[in-house]
Structures are given as structure tokens and as C-alpha cells.
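Exercise 7b. C-alpha cells:
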């Protein structure tokens, strides 16, 4: 009996020793869920800068000759409105302010601000023949500001210059060595020197073939022509001509004054009137010292329709 009890006890102990408690199943690891963060708006892709449209190039027109009958009178001719006695109502030229000088000589020539507006003129050169000799000039440049007021161009100031050796003349005639009084448009520039940078008017280089025709019998009177231009209807052997290359000092820098140019050409009134370099009286042009001429040329802007008012004290006829 004891043996059976002992065996039973051993069996029970063996069973208890092999009994295992089942482990609690582990939960699988949870993956971390990323919470989306607010993102800044993406920067716009850089846009290429717009390419500015090039400024239209000024057009050279000084080779166009007279077509048909000339139109008269020429715009800017002040012979009919000129009242020289009005100069006495104003201070002497050297005592006038720059703006006062312009007001004085516009009044003498019978011009008003409305006349400048009618010409759509926003740049103006004033050349005044002085009473001391009727030949030396005060030259001042003006421009209209955004408000429409005329103001002197400070960086140019007052410049000394010259008219023709016989002064100025209303109703100017050819071969008088006088400069044409009046309000005239300014045209293209040309020169024996190299073209200046940043020029805002049409320019043409003088070549060995360049002539300014002053032959009164030629259809090309008072125009620039090239001797080797095969399109010309007549020979280049004109009876009267300025071969531009010969004026290597005078025409280093020059601007055409639209006096007696097409469509207003009357040969008796003259030819080849320019604003150019000079340190002495001219044959009828308006002269400035070379550095002043260059700075004035750089200031001119064809889009502002520049003009020149040639005025002052007129010497008596010979």
C-alpha cells in the first residue's frame, strides 16, 4: 500500500513539474503613423526678365531731295512776326536769367509757348547774336519737364558760339554769310569723327565719297549724296558742292539745321546750314566749341523733336 501511495505521489509531482502556464500573447509592435506637417507654399519658379523692345532707330532723311514745287513759307520763318524794338523792354542779355533770355527773344521773334507745342518740340537750343558784334552768340539749351515747364539744361549751361561772319538775317539769302534767323527743326547728325556712344539722333559717318550738294541746278540741291551711289540720276560732278571730308575740324561733329531743306527748297535762300564745331564766325552756320558741340549732340534726342531758335541783334545790311 505504501508503495502505491509513493508511486502516486511521484506521478503527481511529475505532472506538476511539467505543467507550464501559457504566456500572454504579445501584441505586435505598432508602426508609428507620421502626422503630415503643413508645408510652406512652394516658391514660384523664377520667370525670365522681359526683354525690352529696342528703341526705334532714328531715320536718316537728309538724302531725300525736293519733290515737286517747294512749300512756302517755311515753318519757323519769323520774318513777318519779328519786332526787334521789343528787345528794349527786357534787361540786357548778359543780365537776363537763362529762362528770361528765352522769354525775351521769343517775344522779339513773335513766338509763344503754344508755337513750341504746335511743333511738338520738347528740346530747344537758343542761339542769340550779341549786340556787341552781332556775330558772337550766347547759346543755351532747354527742355520741357513732366509738368510742361521749360527749364534750362544745367549741365550744359551758357555756351559761347558764333553765327555767320555777317551775323543773322531774316529772309536769309544765299552767299550773304549770314545765319538764318527763325525757329528751325534739327535733323540728323554726321561727322568726320567716330560716332559718339549713346547717341539719340540719326548719325552718318563722313566717307571719301560724301558730298553736300549746293548746285542750284541739281535736283539734289541741299542734300547729302554719295558720289559712288549708282542710283543717282545724274553724274556726281556737281558745279557747287561741299566735299564733307575736307572739313575735318568743322565737321567733326555736326547736326543738320532744317532750313531750306525739302520740301521747302528755294535755292536762292541758301544751302548747307548746320550746327557744327567752330571757334570763329562761320559762313552762315551756327558754331560751338568742339567739346560744347559734342555735349550738346549727346543731349539731343530725336524723340523730343529738337529745334533751334536763331535770333538776336541783326547787323545792318551792307
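Sequence design result:
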Amino acid at each position: 500500500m505504501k508503495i502505491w501511495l509513493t508511486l502516486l505521489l511521484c506521478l503527481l509531482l511529475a505532472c506538476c513539474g511539467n505543467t507550464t502556464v501559457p504566456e500572454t500573447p504579445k501584441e505586435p509592435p505598432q508602426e508609428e503613423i507620421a502626422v503630415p506637417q503643413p508645408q510652406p507654399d512652394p516658391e514660384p519658379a523664377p520667370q525670365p526678365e522681359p526683354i525690352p523692345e529696342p528703341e526705334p532707330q532714328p531715320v536718316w532723311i537728309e538724302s531725300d531731295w525736293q519733290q515737286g514745287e517747294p512749300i512756302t513759307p517755311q515753318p519757323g520763318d519769323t520774318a513777318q512776326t519779328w519786332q526787334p524794338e521789343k528787345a528794349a523792354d527786357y534787361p540786357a542779355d548778359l543780365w537776363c536769367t537763362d529762362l528770361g533770355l528765352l522769354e525775351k527773344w521769343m517775344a522779339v521773334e513773335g513766338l509763344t509757348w503754344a508755337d513750341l507745342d504746335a511743333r511738338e518740340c520738347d528740346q530747344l537750343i537758343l542761339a542769340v547774336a550779341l549786340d556787341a558784334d552781332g556775330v558772337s552768340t550766347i547759346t543755351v539749351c532747354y527742355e520741357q519737364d513732366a509738368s510742361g515747364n521749360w527749364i534750362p539744361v544745367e549741365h550744359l549751361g551758357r555756351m559761347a558760339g558764333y553765327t555767320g561772319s555777317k551775323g543773322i538775317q531774316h529772309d536769309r539769302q544765299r552767299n550773304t554769310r549770314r545765319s538764318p534767323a527763325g525757329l528751325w527743326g534739327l535733323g540728323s547728325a554726321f561727322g568726320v569723327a567716330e560716332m559718339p556712344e549713346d547717341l539719340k539722333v540719326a548719325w552718318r559717318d563722313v566717307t571719301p565719297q560724301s558730298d553736300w550738294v549746293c548746285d542750284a541746278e541739281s535736283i539734289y540741291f541741299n542734300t547729302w549724296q554719295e558720289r559712288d551711289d549708282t542710283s543717282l540720276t545724274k553724274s556726281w560732278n556737281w558745279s557747287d558742292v561741299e566735299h564733307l571730308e575736307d572739313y575735318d575740324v568743322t565737321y567733326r561733329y555736326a547736326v543738320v539745321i532744317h532750313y531750306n531743306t525739302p520740301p521747302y527748297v528755294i535755292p536762292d535762300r541758301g544751302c548747307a546750314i548746320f550746327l557744327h564745331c567752330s571757334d570763329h564766325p562761320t559762313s552762315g552756320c551756327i558754331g560751338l566749341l568742339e567739346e560744347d558741340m559734342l555735349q550738346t549732340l549727346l543731349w539731343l534726342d530725336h524723340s523730343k523733336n529738337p529745334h533751334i531758335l536763331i535770333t538776336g541783334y541783326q547787323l545792318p545790311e551792307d
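Instructor comment: Residues 84-227+238-312 form one domain. DSSP finds four helices and 15 strands in the chain.
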